[in-house]
Write a structure and sequence with these properties.
By secondary structure, the protein is of the alpha+beta class. Helices cover 24% and strands 29% of the residues. It folds into 3 domains: 109 residues, Tumour Suppressor Smad4, CATH 2.60.200; 128 residues, no CATH class; 141 residues, no CATH class.
Length: 449
């Protein structure tokens, strides 16, 4: 009996040692994020170490680089130069610098133009084509803390934390999927996901921690899906194949009532443009007729324009939107924000009074600032729509004798996958993030990385 107990004790000890020898599960890893959104052409840069201990590597040289250290890099006569801690500038031997994080720390990047941002992790600087290529090397979960507040908002944590959790899972899934195809991603929303580092971290970090390591996978293959999302679906999500040409069973079109009535300007917007300006934008004379060819969701597939001389052209829906999209401008309801829209014509050769507008389909409340914008000092009835160039360009001194076109739409973005405003509304109604995700993505499971 004692011998058997001894053997059992030995087996238990060996089993314990095997368990202790196993590596701890890890759901995060270091990733590389190229900073191109605001820093793609930076020639002069200052890097300040705000927190932690770093190592500065210059080829075969290494320097301790603790909190308070400063590095300035630039160029002189096509040759890259640097200055460490405000010492003399010197020419760099080679084109690669590395600021390696030895422990949890943060650094701040500044440019002479006044751009500044803070990042966790380390930084690689590569002199390339007369500018510095900057790559932030950061823990994947810390990366998400700089993504979710930009893609949604820290303010949504109050009453909408479940939406932030859904966004965290979607953003993490997107990251895993992208890294399976490439070892490098960017911080640009035009290429990958928006990322602004430590500068935007806040209440949304709760959502990243609460969903740590969770991603969306296909229910059968258990592989990460392409977790796409946009700001506002306009009340109906879109099929991926109608936007990018490739069918995706996880991102299919369906009605989205949760996106209706929320989002302010992006929920319902209106863009006004004169017939001459509309025509000249696409190589035509003053437009007299607009025809919309739509997908089942209601989004515009293409637009047929015909001018006063009988010439016609067909423009793809996305190209039509991009021609008037307010790039670099604040989002407002007098803008062209998406491809889910209707077109209306105001009769040519006619000025509309306030009375005629309120009696017709275009009521005065819907015209927003245009009532005052188009009213002339000596006119008591205004507005004079024939003087409008467009919602973005305002009015002209002289009226034009052709039509004015009004495009009324809903939503902002491509509409594929999760609607961020819809997710926020669902969270306010009491839905959990798992329910939000399975509502917007088809045939999926939530799994740990």
């Amino acid at each position: 009996m004692l011998q058997m107990m001894y053997r059992l004790l030995c087996l238990w000890i060996v089993s314990l040692l095997i368990v202790l020898a196993q590596p701890a599960p890890c759901t995060a890893k270091m990733i590389s994020v190229e900073l191109v959104w605001n820093l793609s052409q930076a020639g002069w840069i200052q890097v300040d170490i705000d927190k932690g201990d770093y190592l500065l590597k210059l080829g075969n040289e290494s320097y301790k680089f603790p909190a308070g250290s400063t590095l300035q890099v630039g160029w002189g006569g096509w040759t890259p130069v640097l200055r460490i801690n405000h010492e003399e500038f010197r020419v760099i031997d080679g084109s690669l610098l590395e600021i390696i994080a030895l422990n949890s720390g943060s650094l701040r990047i500044k440019t002479p133009e006044g751009k500044a941002a803070s990042y966790r992790g380390g930084l690689q600087l590569n002199w390339q084509d007369s500018h510095w290529r900057l790559i932030n090397q950061v823990d994947s979960e810390d990366y998400l803390k700089g993504v979710v507040p930009i893609e949604m908002s820290n303010e949504w944590a109050n009453g909408g934390l479940e939406a932030l959790k859904a966004q965290a899972v979607a953003a993490r899934t997107y990251l895993v999927r992208q890294l399976s195809n490439s070892k490098l991603i960017t911080d640009s929303p035009d290429i990958h996901q928006a990322y602004s580092g430590l500068s935007v971290e806040g209440e949304a970090s709760q959502a990243i921690e609460a969903t740590r390591g969770e991603i969306l996978v296909d229910a059968q293959t258990k592989q990460p899906i392409d977790a796409l999302y946009s700001s506002h679906s306009g009340g109906h999500t879109e099929d991926a194949k109608n936007v990018w040409g490739n069918a995706d069973l996880h991102n299919i079109s369906h009605p989205d009532p949760y996106s209706k009535g929320v989002g302010g300007a992006v929920n319902h917007w209106r863009f006004i443009v004169s017939a001459p300006l509309l025509g000249s934008t696409f190589g035509l004379g003053p437009v007299r007729e607009v025809e919309l060819n739509k997908f089942p969701s209601g989004r515009v597939k293409n637009v047929r324009l015909e001018d006063e001389f009988g010439q016609a052209t067909i423009v793809k829906g996305r190209a039509f939107v991009q021609a008037f999209y307010p790039f670099g401008q604040p989002i407002r309801k007098e803008a062209f924000l998406g491809s889910l829209f209707e077109a209306k014509t105001v009769v040519s050769n006619r000025s509309l009074s306030k009375k005629s507008i309120s009696d017709g389909p275009f009521n005065s409340a819907g015209y927003s600032g245009f009532l005052d914008l188009t009213k002339q000092p000596d006119e008591g009835q205004g507005p004079l729509l024939s003087k409008i160039l467009s919602s973005s360009l305002g009015t002209n001194d002289k009226p034009q004798p052709y039509a004015v076109f009004i495009f009324e739409g809903q939503g902002w973005g491509h509409g594929v996958g999760m609607s961020q405003w819809g997710a926020y509304h669902m969270a306010q109604l009491g839905f959990k993030y798992q329910e939000i995700l399975t509502y917007y993505y088809n045939n999926v499971l939530i799994s740990k990385v």
